[in-house]
Predict the structure.
Amino acid sequence: MHTYDIVPQEMLTEQNALEFNQEDATVWLDPLDGTWGFINGVMENVTNMIGVEINGSPKIGVIHKPFCTKDGNVSKTYFGSVETGAYRCRNRGDHKKQIKYSSDRPITYLGNFEQTPIPDGSSQDDYQVKVSTSLNNFKEIEDGLQHLQPYIPIRVGGAGNKILYMIDGHAESVLYMTRGMKNWDMCAPEALLRAQLGVVTDKDLNQIEYNP
């Protein structure tokens, strides 16, 4: 069991919460995440991501999930920043046409992560952690997951889609144990996870470095 020392960030006023020097900013784009699913018609794995990091630290994240239903008439957009929190917007519209936005479109504040209560009659040692993990190359990951027993694997395609399973409360952690994740895969998701007071690290429990 590991404990994390989360160093509190400098207190920011509402006025300067989103102010930064543009020269210090890098924008990471992933216009089509979940390419394998897209090619094979598994459209629910697809996301579009925009992440903004300042001096190597993710600050703003946007993840759009264009296909929440098979007919493509419902999509969701997740957005937020470390200072302002994370939000979700549900959209309706035919993807062949322009989606119309209106002021009455419901926007949900996602709040902070909460610990899942232990079921009555169970002990902490028996609790099965729900882990969102890779859809492909699962054998390699499964060998490592054996050290995390007890757990429930949730195999999901797409880097952004894995994170959304955690943000939506379907998983309590995300584990990616093979090479292949890029900065554009993680910048937007990390900003949203940190907006909910989540913790993101590499395999050595260090912060991820975003170096152009």
Residues 22-195 form one domain. The chain has one domain: 22-195.
